[in-house]
Amino acid sequence: MSDPAIDTTAQTTPAQREALLEVDHVTLRFGGVVALNDVDFTLYKGEILGLIGPNGAGKTTCFNAMTGVYAPTQGEIRFKGQRVSGRPRHKITQMGIARTFQNIRLFPEMSALENVMVGADAHHKASVISALFRLPRFWKEERSGRDRAHDLLRFVGIQRPGELARNLSYGEQRRLEIARALATSPTLLCLDEPAAGFNPAEKDSLLKLIRKIRDTGVTVLLIEHDMRLVMGVTDRIVVLEFGKKIAEGLPAEVRDNPAVIAAYLGVPTDAA
Amino acid sequence: MNAHVDKVRSRGFAMRNRWQNMPPQVRWVALAALIIFLYLLPNRWFYINLWYFRTMESDMATVLFETSFFVLLAVGLNVVVGFAGLLDLGYFGFFAVGAYTVALLTSPESRFGVEWPWLAAVPVAIAVTMLSGVILGGPTLRLRGDYLAIVTLGFAEMIRLYAARNEGIANGQRGIPQIPHPVPEIKGSDGQPWFGVVDARPYYWLTLTIIIFVILGVRNLTRSRVGRAWVAIREDEDAAQIMGVPTFKYKLWAFAIGAAVGGLSGALFAGKQSFINSDSFQLTNSILVLAAVILGGAGNIYGAVIGAFITWYLPEWVRGIGGVIGLDINVAEYRILIFGAVLIVMMIFRPQGILPSRRRAAEFADRREAAAPTEASA
Fold it and tell me: Is the pLDDT of residue B21 over 80?
């Protein structure tokens, strides 16, 4: 397992790329703290983009801004050409952005199946009245939602749909979060450190899962610490440090970039 | 003590599993038998054979009616507190709105002077309480936890004080008398209206029927995207929203549905009592309904039913039993005291309630584990 990574990159040529999410010169301040400083990059349809950087580099902040949790102080984030910030969060989900959480945030007392069905409900139209009187529309959506949830659980490899989320193993919980996010039928799936706490075998199966997700036509944004996973699965990488973008490019390019190496390993001469 | 607590708890789960593993036919027959039993219960020829189960000193039918409308209130509040997890301390405010709406629309003493029949006023009362729920919920459901509790508490007190002080509409402390009984057109065998002053049985049967329908409705909602949304909101509101749940909308629905059921109980109460004033809507009642829901097991419809039954029926029953064994005490006076003690014991031994929802039980188990971590919890 020295370097299988480079071969899997760049399946789409730059010429035919279509922008899905544009982070347009975004600055985000919390009081005096500049969490993001003029960050600018584009996510193209159908790719797997890695967002990396040392601890505190602003990855999760960037991620939160992209999913509408924070509004940028300056600049703009556009998804399919439309502004993301300023919309209610559930509307952003309906636009087609789904995410998982760095610290798992499932609904612990709901079954795995119900967790995924909550995601599937994002596009359901049945009203409270039709649920109350069990109108045909309710049955139709309930049935299709259930089928879809079962399919997704199989897709991510969870065998016990009826088990409460809190009783699932750690790895299953991480994968359940992915299934729940996929149930909202996203065009963009944002994974926030999905491999945290995984052993190498689990990381390998996660890597396969991410590729499988991309193959179904979903664009993936991946925040990850584990370099082997990032190098192995992403098409392109954006590197942040202290809220600024310091590099962008193919995994091989990024790995050899002196600024990136300095950010991760530290360079005595340039320090302070 | 913990070992004992766990033993009691596991026995409870075993019983539930046994019930759920029975063939559906058996369950349907058992349920039908229970419902028939409940309909027969207020008849003297029936309950007289029930030995010590009946109330000795108060009229059985009246106690059953009061219990039943209290159960209805608990079922409604359970939607708000149990399912959506919104702490509502002012539930009796909605009850008062429903009762006053009926009173104002029907009573000849009302300033409105419309004198509608009771039945026509009920849908209006439900609509008005639902609306008041939306008006109260609109600005306040953005608050969470304790803040919401304070606002709802204030709401109930506002309604009560307004009713007590306002002479123009609510007649102040004199209240509104002569509220007509439900459907006077239905006559009994003696030619008198079925819904009369003395016999409480028709009111009980009416309320029981309404409870069954309300339970069916709530059950339908909880087993749908609505119920999933409520539980998701209760467990992690932010995550629910990010997964596409319009959280505000569903919280408002829970509030409105709870309010509507509260208003319906108020309408029933007004129709039975034929007189209301602000004394009928004391704050302790709100607390008592909430306590009933918690006692029975928040988040479980049948838990709420059992909790309300115990909260209302048991003190009346104890009052009679006290007389039988020769104690000269009025238990009703000590009711809140005893109830407080029972709640404290419950919180120690069974914090999730008598008949909790599966989920809620697990949530409490989590907290217990967090409080006393063992090596098993990983």
Answer: no
